[in-house]
Model the fold of this input.
Amino acid sequence: MLVGFVASVVALNERAAQATLGFDEVYEQVREPVARFALRLLGDREEAADVAQEAALAIWRGLGSFEGRSSVTTWALGIVANLARKRIRRKKLEPKLLEPTSATEAAGGDDDRALHGLELREEARRVRDALATLPEKQRAAFLLATDAELPYREIGEALSMSVSNVKVSIHRARKKLMQELEPVS
Done:
């Protein structure tokens, strides 16, 4: 989740007000959560790493001029979402499917654990496949609502959408995901 990111960005904003941060420090604090969110949007580790670096630079450059019209988190996640969207358009990227890398998803040990691991991998693959079918704005709105747990107003600010468009996007994303994830007979 992006909870650690929220704390990092708030701390960054406080330190930026004192003009004591260098880029390396900003990058170290936001690299992982920004990269994770970019990865969820893009589905490509290399592209996500590039977007994360661009976002960290944009966050660092913008900290001094942040006006506070939205929360720092909304502002920073909006930067990530916009950079990811630009990259998708510029490179005509299609969301890729990510292979599981966590130990939880890896099968191992006795037969029950191996079977459970295979079931987890299959379910994770189905979720990744379903997320990849969503249009980019729906996917971004859905992930900001579910992963970052942002309110609709802040999602709208981050994605330059009205609150009603955010609600419609999330509703459509949920509906499509439910259809995609219906149990296989």
Summary: DSSP finds eight helices and no strands in the chain.
